[in-house]
Amino acid sequence: MIERLFQMASTAFSRRIAIDKNDAYDRAYLWAWEEGGMRELLRLCYKTPDFPDNARRFHASDEFRALLAMLAALGVAPSPSSKVLDFGCGNGVASYAFAREGFNVTGMDSSAGLLAGLGAAKKLNGLDGVKVNFRFHSGEKLDIEPNSFDVVYIREVLHHIHSLVEFLRQIRTILKPGGVVCCLRDVVIWNESQRADFFAKHPLNFITKDENCYYLDEYLLAFVNAELTLRKVLAPPDSVINTYPAPFVEGVRHDAGAVRARSEGYEIFSFFAMKPLEPAQAGEPALEQRI
Known about the structure:
By secondary structure, this protein is of the alpha/beta class.
């Protein structure tokens, strides 16, 4: 019965989905919804045309609860004085979730799309009393005042960035001293065969043409060179943040040797780093894990 109701709702939505035809992300998600046979995948990714449902499900998700716990361990608690930048906010589900928890949130994205971008995100303003400042931003240069945010949240975005070090240096600049950057669910490969496989099998890159991937060491070195102190690196099985939509299973360990030997597939890693309270001493490493 529930499946039948979902199918009926899906059919109704497909008849009235509005998109920006000039926006690649809108075109990609509409294709996935109507022609690509990916409705369940989009539901799991919180990217259906039902914007309130996407937002409320993400707010209630184990992933978001795990994120809040990680931030609390790093000394960040919900407060109107705690400013969060949701960079690459897309349809705004994480912006909504942070704001509903009581943070002061700015959502920023390069897509103005009505389905996948800011056009969708802005429709969440007012939902359950939530208010977010959504802003359009294009490119990797951040025109933001220094020391502006307590948290910069970047979900499934860092692997799209072309200049990791320069971008993370800008993130460091806009963070307040002691501020946290959360780079979640980024694509890691271990050999060039995996890179080729990633591009060959990605279901939407033929439309968006913006996918990318990096070796783990490239991410880690970028944080060091940007003078951000890594506080936690989550390997694929370490948290529901990475395992979703599969469940988190306690005690599973990452087998780096096995994944390096594969010619197909990729992995999802997440990174939590902080802007030091004091400038790093010359020659002092910025790589540190305490949680």
